[in-house]
From TrEMBL:
Organism per entry: Flavobacterium indicum (strain DSM 17447 / CIP 109464 / GPTSA100-9)
Superkingdom to which the source organism belongs: Bacteria
Region entry Disordered, spans: 158-177
Keyword annotations from UniProtKB, A to Z: Lipoprotein
Presence of the UniProt keyword Lipoprotein in the record: yes
PROSITE patterns (alphabetical): PROKAR_LIPOPROTEIN
The protein's name: Probable lipoprotein
Amino acid sequence: MKKASVLFFVLISLTSCDYILKSSSSDHDDMVQIDSLRKNQIIDDKNEHGCEVKSGYKWSNLEKKCVRVFEEGYRLSSVAKDSLGNSNNAYFFIAEDSLRAEVFLPDSKESIVLTREDESENFKFKDFELKQKGGFALLYDDTVIFKPALARDLKVIESDEPEMKGEPEGMKKDSTK
């Protein structure tokens, strides 16, 4: 009986300590922090130019507007592979005057604008060079870091259309005639 009463007393004291240590104000503080996180997420959804980053938009210094580079740009694949054997992609645009090009590197907030004097030269900016002979390639310090992306042609094994067994209802021949 003594053991049961000691156990009962310990359980009651632990429960009451838990109740006393938790106050309604700490619950309210947690709620305020969650609300402020949600507000920050909404603010962080756009960059300084107003582009919706989570929707894949980046600011183009050539176009002077928000663009989705993976839809509108030309793709280059990185020469180096990650630990899973995948390569990252860079994208580029060429201005209408053909004397400027803009490159969007993976995980970079700002693009790089490269220029050239005439169409026979490569695009250059500091140690970067966008070379076009033999397919576009991006070089850094005379080393190829992005090469032309190759299209993967996947074989279609089956049709997307459901297979029909027998003749369709409207196509059956009338055997009564």
